[in-house]
Design brief:
2 copies of one chain form a homodimer.
Chain A: H1 8-19, H2 29-36, H3 40-53, E1 56-58, E2 63-65, H4 70-79, H5 81-97, E3 100-107, E4 110-117, E5 132-134, H6 139-146, H7 150-159, H8 173-186, E6 189-192, E7 199-207, E8 213-222, H9 228-249
Antiparallel strand pairs in A: 1-2, 3-4, 3-8, 4-5, 6-7, 7-8
Helix pairs in contact in A: 1-2, 1-3, 2-3, 5-9, 6-8
The structure holds a DNA duplex (30 and 30 nucleotides).
Chain lengths: 251, 251
DNA sequence: TGACATTTGTTCGTATATCGCACAAGATGT
DNA sequence: ACATCTTGTGCGATATACGAACAAATGTCA
């Protein structure tokens, strides 16, 4: 790509949108300049442009994102076939298992939920399409990392901020690579309270007919309701059959 | 705002993202130029910029959005206090009523879901935070329109593409304005299969301490499970108590 | 309270990057 | 092999970004 094929004003604007997050909901021009590293004048122009288009609100002092921003992410969910294809199967899976079922894809070091059938709240945080979790300590993340070439997976693990969320969390590169080997061999990943105490989940890859892993699906439950062995016994066969149906529908 | 405070390259880029939707998941440069009305050269630069930043994938012929795009919408959901605040209360509400509970805000002619606790699938389409429905024929839309000044509501109704989704759907401006009066007077809106046959819902406004309506919450169910009268009797008191708790937490 | 320091927002001239057009090159279908 | 449609490129005109200077608001201390 040539230098002139890149619209830096557009790229800067997008970084301004991403400057808003959990801890930063009401931002001044200076705040945005500091977070994004843009010049104050440029940050101001991006923010005023967002406000002019209705993507942000401005009270003269602080900017906040407006619900119109959701159109942007929603473009992906409605335009990509996979989320719409898997949703009904996750509903079925959740129905059959009596637990929450989800599908996700990899984006950098994180998994991104693309569809979900939540049966009942099991986690402290709420998960929706668009939600993100670190790949290294989630069942779907392990499955998706295991599908990558070894050095690619290692690179992502090294890049990840590997925090021990619980005493169970694996954080060592060697441990995690071992785990990925195991996942690759057995065809599924089980997380036993590595993300949050009391939370277990099991995930398997979804491959297209060419054998490429395009997504992962999982079932999550409370640790008190099922041991690791019980999860494999109870959920894995149903998940695999669901997965096979999905695969047959993927071009 | 001065002319030079608007970054047209940014605005054009955002319109390119929105060009992708349900019917348009894989778009060529020419497709995007046609949909957005941009010059082909401009559309191409926007698309290449998106691809360079990882927001889109390019196979040399077609562009598709990548899951990274979801960060943009997610910026809103995580940075705005309201969605995170209401979520646990929707969970409770769904638990108590045994039905799906949601919260939404108005964006133009549409309501946008900002949080949801889905108990079991009742609709043919799947609803998630970010999902949109026309305001004129949804219970939360009626509540949010009723909170606007009369002429503002009329303007939105006139702007809406008022389709009769079912034989029950009200599509006349006068009918709808009457309905808004009723909603305003009684403090709740009930939709009896106007959006989809078999689907009923009841919504109430959520106001902040200053009395401004900031959102609507609803409970939806299947028509066979509850008549309109039964919905009001069964769900309204619980909803109102949930709403009062939320209001007390809103600054 | 008033003077000073500091932070934040806005304006401006200029260097530079982007836009839109016209044309070239390539792909597709008949 | 031709017509048609799509994609890529070069260039002059124009719009944008930068950095600094200015203005306004906010905070600090005697």
């Amino acid at each position: 790509m040539r230098e002139t094929d890149f619209i830096s004003g557009f790229a800067k604007g997008l970084s301004v949108i991403e400057a808003f997050d959990a801890g930063n909901s009401r931002l001044s021009i200076t705040d945005v300049a500091r977070i994004t590293g843009l010049e104050r004048a440029t940050a101001r122009r991006c923010l005023l442009t967002l406000a002019e288009l209705g993507y942000a609100d401005y009270d003269g002092k602080f900017f906040t994102l407006s619900p119109r921003i959701l159109r942007l992410g929603h473009s992906y969910l409605t335009s990509t076939p996979l989320p719409r294809l898997v949703q009904p199967f996750l509903d079925q899976l959740s129905e059959k298992t009596g637990e929450s079922a989800s599908a996700s894809v990899l984006d950098g070091n994180e998994i991104v939920y693309i569809a979900r059938a939540s049966h009942k709240r099991v986690m402290s945080i709420n998960l929706n399409p668009g939600s993100r979790l670190p790949a290294y300590c989630s069942s779907m993340g392990r499955v998706l990392l295991a599908a990558l070439p070894e050095d690619e997976a290692r690179r992502i693990l090294k890049n990840s901020n590997r925090v021990a969320n619980t005493p169970n969390t694996k954080t060592g590169i060697a441990d995690l690579l071992d785990e990925l080997h195991r996942v690759r061999a057995q065809g599924y990943a089980v997380i036993d309270q590595e993300l949050e105490i009391g939370l277990c989940s099991i995930a398997i890859p979804v491959r297209n007919v060419r054998g490429t892993t395009v997504s992962a699906i999982n079932v999550g439950t409370q640790a008190v309701r099922a041991s690791v062995g019980e999860m494999i016994e109870r959920y894995l066969p149903t998940m695999q059959s669901t997965r096979d149906t999905i695969t047959s529908l993927l071009v």
